[in-house]
Amino acid sequence: MKTRGPRVVLVRHGETAWSRSGQHTGRTDVPLLEEGRKMATLLGDPLHAWNFAQVWTSPLSRAAETCALAGYGDVAVRRDDLMEWDYGDHEGRTSAEIRTEQPGWTLWKYGAPHGETLEQIGERADRVVTDARAVAGDVLIFSHGHFLRVLAARWVDLAPDAGRLFLLDTGSISSLGFEGAAAQPVLSCWNDTTHLRGRPTPGGPP
Question: Is the pLDDT of residue 5 over 90?
Fold first, then answer.
């Protein structure tokens, strides 16, 4: 009988004041807005159609609360590797503000002074990929926009900066898996927000 590797379902946390305004939110523990709490609650129905062997969450409150409101707070394991990019000097700033000082700046190209490098984010993502592929069953992950974009890139064996290609909205559901007998890693679903019933879901800083 053919076997398949695990599927990994990714959830970006619900909306916060800083994701709404486009401010880079790394390690600052910004709470969910009421709209973000509603998003998190609406995640419950689609996610409970799955049977997860493990549930992992970032320890930052916006992800952990999303996890709890979706119905997985009692079973989730908090993992530091799932925290958002440390934006260093750019923490709390919008891309537009940064570009007034450095025209053409993007996080993917220029990074964040005194924060984590793209290589360091990639190393964290690689550890999560390795651990998820070792699970005998499907895995649910609650985390953050930029980190999940890098994680998706590394899942399909792309360089960490390929995460720039994968727009990811707050409250969205995505999934990673494998295709065919060769078990080719694939993105099987990306940035699904249909469960939010038409609510706007700002993507946060580009």
Answer: no
